[in-house]
Amino acid sequence: MYAARRERLRERCAGGGSAAALVSRPANVRYLAGAAPGGAVLLLGRTEDVLVCARPPGEEPGAERPDEALRTHVLETPGGDPAVAGARQAAAQGAESLAVEEHHLTVARHHALGSVAPALRLTDLARGVEQLRLVKDEEEISCLRIAAEIADQALGELLESILVGRTERHLALELERRLVDHGADGPAFATSVATGPNSGRGGHRPTDRRVEEGDFLSVCLGSCYRGYRSEIGRTFVIGTSPADWQIELYDLVFAAQRAGREALTPGAAYRDVDRAARHVLDAAGYADGLAPLTGHGVGLEIDEDPQLAPAAMGKLDACVPVTVEPGVHLPGRGGVRIDDTLVVRCEADGGPELLTITTKELLAL
């Protein structure tokens, strides 16, 4: 599997006039090599591919082993730069040009590559690996399903506990502990728990505010399983029956989220998916203050291509996992966010596959 991925990248590089490539972005190294030890780079060379590491892979607790078919080179000198060593090896293999990930390298590191192998012509690999990562294979989607199941389990258990009087920070820590208890590598991102006037804010950092009766409680979490990440967001009411304004706002965001989910078809433009969800909120008078995007891709990173945004260019393919996460926040009152991870599927395969299945009913906890 990893060799096939490397071969696809090699073909892309050859089409761009480069016989060798140096991959340095950790998620891209992992995608092509099966593991990304700290600071490691992957050289796709003219004669062989080499994973260049600062220390032997697998030393870190729980670290995965790289592809056994891939030669590993460990630096002899502590503190050396694997990227510099990789460029040196590319030159030794007779490469005349080397494609590098300029969007990941620092200027200083780029200069170092040029100085150690001045005969190499450095070109930009751009986002070539990220483009390969867009469409997931079934093994990747299986990991995403498990990551989503773990997040669903952790959230479901929290909803069965007593919430009134507990702080946002405490609830976030408990959710992250439950993720690990259920088999996650760890949280996919910093868990967000927001109560009362904080609810509905995207990316809210938990505070010491305590949960109170009548609050909206919005939660956004995700788990990481074998490197693959999920995301789920739900909003609830605490303790009592929801107020009329809470029901109206929730129903509106739910309608927007449903419109976004239903727009996830192969061939749909990224911006059309965003427009489907955003139009529902715009029409209700909530155009101001909406998030800059409706969703994004997920995989080895929690926020990867594609971006479902008003100006985004491109169209969806089948087997692309994305989030749909509209929300509305009313200053001083709170708000609603509903967030799912789905995989784009064609209609013949049942339409978009919902990975996060915790109920979206407005529950009073």
Automatic annotation (TrEMBL):
Transmembrane segments: none
Gene3D superfamilies assigned: Creatinase/methionine aminopeptidase superfamily, Creatinase/prolidase N-terminal domain
Residue intervals of the Creatinase N-terminal domain: 5-135
InterPro entries named among the record's database cross-references: Creatin/AminoP/Spt16_N, Creatinase/aminopeptidase-like, Creatinase_N, Pept_M24, Peptidase_M24B
Top-rank taxon: Bacteria
Region span, Disordered: 188-208
Pfam families assigned to the protein according to its UniProt record, in alphabetical order: Creatinase_N (PF01321), Peptidase_M24 (PF00557)
Name of the featured protein: Putative Xaa-pro dipeptidase
